[in-house]
Amino acid sequence: MAGTAVGHHDGSMTDQPNVDVRDDVERQAFVAVLDDGTEAGFAAYRRADGVVTFTHTEVPDEFEGQGIGSRLVAGALQQVRDDGDRVVARCPFVHAYIERHPEHQDLLAA
C-alpha cells in the first residue's frame, strides 16, 4: 500500500493526530491510518480507465471533529494526482471538499 503522510507541519502543538493515507487497492479504498496503526476512516472508490470515482467516505464517530476526513481526502486526491488519474466525486463529502479547495478542481473528469 502506498501512503501519504498528512498532518499539521508548522511545528505547533495540535490535538489533531498524524494521518497516513494509504491506497488499499484490494478494498478499493483510501484508508486513514493513525500512528498507532488504527484505521480512522476510509474513502471508497471505483477505478476504471484512469478515473477514480469516489463513492463513500466514512470516519467513525470517535474520530469526528479531528480533521481526519479532510486529511484523508487531501491525501487521496494527492495520490490520484501523482498517478495521473482524474476524479469523479459521487461522494458528497469528497464533492464538498473539492468545492472548498479549488486547487483540486483540475482533477475532475469532464
TrEMBL record:
Organism: Isoptericola chiayiensis
Region Disordered, annotated ranges: 1-21
Domain N-acetyltransferase residue range list: 22-109
Protein name: N-acetyltransferase domain-containing protein
CDD domains according to UniProt: NAT_SF (cd04301)
InterPro entries, alphabetized: Acyl_CoA_acyltransferase, Gcn5-rel_NAT, GNAT_YJDJ
